[in-house]
Structure formats: structure tokens, C-alpha cells
């Protein structure tokens, strides 16, 4: 299939991206974000779940939970290219919200392709927030790995680990194993037997938890035993692309904020941006971000138009975005000098979000290893 011009990023995608940028500039400025999530610098502070629920309602009014839902399920049916543009703006503003988790869950539900999954998509389009509970204690999100079991009566027991924004969402897509294989189940966070145990994490713009399930009987089957792996494999390229888009947006904020500081901070009677020791790293940041952004939109385009290449493109995008996130985070702190290491300097919020995203679903080294297994293995098979 021929790829469309500009990755298929059309006028509707641009309108969505521009609308998101304007809204978040007005309602999630860095000063307001810092006041919201960084009230305490104590290392031993309790794990918090702080977010602007009024801003979330504005997102719902704009239909952002419906953008990735297929039209047949009551959504807008926009391509992953448009979703990447939206998520890039979420990363640029480091927004605390369950939207990224809900978008990822949308792609998993769509891949299930069952009546129950289609009902879930209708509810997501109407504003239901959902997160994925698909990771085991070792941190593996491989489709076959889970610490949750489902018995013959359909009751779930076990623990799902590293669940993103668990205290902000209303529902969870839980991966569970039975003797017949791995399935996916929708669980209400308020259901009997569900306990959310907050994790202490570095990122102040999100919460994370492990979810304990004890004989949970009200779960809906989204993908039956044996079908869960297929759905997760189909959705994984979208998940990687979404997280990579968030990192690209955050890295762009780091670049622009650091460049502005270099233009205004004066040392030796000149703005520090005059000096090559500052100028060259800024250019390096820009080049890395542009390369990662191109790969993100290429991966989104592949998911929309060339599914057979989607995994490879998505792993390339996640690898490049993770590397860019790590480098831009370090440079943003270093080039701010002494102030860059302080709690009062806003850049630590983006630094921490980037470190969290970097390892989520695998860092650059992990993605390159998976690419090597896939591509070199294929070469060996045909040699």
C-alpha cells in the first residue's frame, strides 16, 4: 500500500493538534503545573494523585477520548497520525491526566474485536477513562506474561503491576491467564475485590500503582482465553508510538525552554547562547528531536496504512524517542547551570516525566534488541 503524503497528517489532525496546544497553554502553563504537582520536595512524602479535573472535563467536552475510537463504535475514527499529534501536545505540557492511558486502552479494546470490546469503545467515546493492567511483577508486558489468573467461574485473582494513572481511571483492562490461555478482562476500579496500592514514582505528573485482585467476579470478557495475546500484539505498535509521541513533545519543551534561557541568561557580558559550548548542544538536541519526531509519525502512518511494517517502525520510533528524551533531559539541566538542579526550576517536572516514559514498554536498548531479534532472525531464516 502506498503511504499518503505527509504521513496522512491532514487538516483535521492539524486542527486537533492546534486546539490541544491552545487549551493546554491556557490551562496547564508550567507555573500552574508546578504549583499543582510540586507542593512538597520531601523525598519521603506520601505518593499523591494530583491533577486538574476541571481541565479533564474540558478534554472530555472536546471529545478527546473519542478521537481514536472507530466511527462504527461511536468515535471520530481518526488515524494514529492524528493521535500522535495530540499526544505530542500532552507531552509538551506534561499534562497530568488519564488521557494517554485511555488512548492506549482504546487500541487494545479495538484489537479485541468482540461485542464486549465494542461496548467498551462506546463507553470510552462517551468519556470513560481506562488504563492497562497488563504487566507482571518483573516489569514484563510481553503478551504471555501475567501474575493474574482467572478460574473456571471467571473470577480474577492476582496482582497487576505498574498500572499507569490507576487512581485517575474508572476501568482497567486486565490481562489474566487460564488453562486455555491469556485473555483480557474489563474490571471496574470500584468492583468488590479490587485494591489499588499506589507506587512511589519519580514522575510528579502521573501516578502509578499495582492492583490487587481478590476473587473479582464482575469482570467482562473483552478477549477470551487464547485471544488476549493476539489483541496485545496487534495493539503494541500503537502503544509504543503513543509513548514516543509524548516524549517528543516533552523534549521539544525542554529544547525551547533551554534555548530561551540561553538567550536571556547573561555571563561574561554576553548571553550564554553566544558560546559554542551552549550553542552546539542545543543544535544536537534539535537534531535528535526532529529525527525522533519523523520516526514517530512514520510509525503512526505505518500503523494506519501498512500494518505489516508497524512493529518495526514503532520500535524504531520508541528507541529514537527514548534516546532523545535521555539526552535532552540531561542537556536541559546542564545548560540551566546551578538553577537547573533546584526544585524551583520547572524543568525537573519534564525531566522526571521523560525518565518514566523512557523505560515504559522498553527503553532504546530494549527496542533495538527486539528489532535485532526480528530483523536478523528473518535474515537468518532466508539465508
UniProtKB/TrEMBL annotation:
Keyword Flavoprotein among record annotations: yes
Please give the cofactor(s) recorded in the UniProt entry for this protein: FAD
Question: What residue stretches are annotated with the Acyl-CoA dehydrogenase/oxidase N-terminal domain?
Answer: 12-127
Task: Tell me the SUPFAM superfamilies matching this sequence.
Answer: Acyl-CoA dehydrogenase C-terminal domain-like, Acyl-CoA dehydrogenase NM domain-like
Which stretches make up the Acyl-CoA dehydrogenase/oxidase C-terminal domain?
243-376
- One Pfam entry name: Acyl-CoA_dh_1
- Report which residue ranges the record marks as coiled coil: none
Q: Which UniProt keywords apply?
A: FAD, Flavoprotein, Oxidoreductase
Q: Would you indicate the residue range of the signal peptide? A: none
Report whether DNA-binding shows up as a keyword of the record.
no
Gene3D superfamilies assigned to the protein according to its UniProt record, in alphabetical order: Acyl-CoA dehydrogenase/oxidase, N-terminal domain, Butyryl-CoA Dehydrogenase, subunit A, domain 2, Butyryl-CoA Dehydrogenase, subunit A, domain 3
| Similarity annotation | Belongs to the acyl-CoA dehydrogenase family.
Name of the molecule in the record: Acyl-CoA/acyl-ACP dehydrogenase
Amino acid at each position: 500500500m502506498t503511504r499518503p503524503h505527509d504521513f496522512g497528517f491532514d487538516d483535521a489532525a492539524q486542527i486537533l493538534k492546534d486546539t490541544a496546544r491552545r487549551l493546554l497553554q491556557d490551562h496547564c502553563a508550567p507555573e500552574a503545573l508546578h504549583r499543582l504537582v510540586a507542593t512538597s520536595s520531601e523525598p519521603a512524602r506520601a505518593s499523591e494523585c494530583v491533577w486538574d479535573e476541571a481541565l479533564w472535563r474540558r478534554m472530555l467536552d472536546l471529545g478527546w477520548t473519542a478521537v481514536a475510537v472507530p466511527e462504527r463504535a461511536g468515535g471520530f475514527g481518526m488515524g494514529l497520525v492524528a493521535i500522535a499529534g495530540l499526544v505530542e501536545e500532552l507531552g509538551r505540557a506534561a499534562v497530568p491526566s488519564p488521557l494517554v492511558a485511555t488512548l492506549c486502552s482504546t487500541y487494545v479494546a479495538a484489537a479485541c474485536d468482540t461485542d464486549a470490546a465494542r461496548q467498551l469503545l462506546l463507553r470510552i467515546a462517551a468519556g470513560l477513562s481506562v488504563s492497562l493492567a497488563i504487566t507482571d511483577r518483573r516489569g514484563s508486558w510481553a503478551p504471555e506474561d501475567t501474575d493474574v489468573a482467572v478460574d473456571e467461574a471467571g473470577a480474577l485473582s492476582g496482582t497487576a503491576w505498574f498500572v499507569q494513572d490507576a487512581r485517575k481511571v474508572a476501568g482497567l483492562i486486565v490481562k489474566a491467564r487460564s488453562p486455555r490461555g491469556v485473555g483480557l478482562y474489563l474490571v471496574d476500579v470500584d468492583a468488590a475485590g479490587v485494591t489499588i496500592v499506589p507506587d512511589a514514582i519519580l514522575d510528579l505528573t502521573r501516578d502509578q500503582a499495582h492492583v490487587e485482585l481478590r476473587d473479582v467476579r464482575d469482570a467482562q470478557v473483552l478477549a477470551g482465553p487464547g485471544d488476549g495475546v493476539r489483541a496485545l500484539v496487534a495493539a503494541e505498535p500503537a502503544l509504543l508510538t503513543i509513548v514516543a509521541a509524548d516524549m517528543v513533545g516533552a523534549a521539544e519543551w525542554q529544547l525551547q525552554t533551554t534555548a530561551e534561557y540561553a538567550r536571556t541568561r547573561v555571563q561574561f557580558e554576553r548571553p550564554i547562547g553566544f558560546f559554542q559550548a551552549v550553542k552546539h548542544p542545543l543544535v544536537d538536541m534539535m537534531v535528535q528531536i526532529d529525527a525522533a519526531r519523523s520516526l514517530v509519525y512514520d510509525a503512526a502512518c505505518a500503523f494506519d496504512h501498512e500494518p505489516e511494517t508497524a512493529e518495526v517502525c514503532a520500535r524504531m520510533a520508541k528507541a529514537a524517542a527514548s534516546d532523545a528524551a535521555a539526552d535532552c533531559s540531561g542537556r536541559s539541566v546542564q545548560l540551566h547551570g546551578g538553577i537547573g538542579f533546584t526544585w524551583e526550576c520547572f524543568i525537573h517536572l519534564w525531566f522526571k516525566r521523560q525518565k518514566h516514559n523512557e523505560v515504559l514498554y522498553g527503553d532504546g536498548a530494549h527496542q533495538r534488541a527486539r528489532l535485532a531479534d526480528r530483523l536478523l532472525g528473518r535474515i537468518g531464516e532466508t539465508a
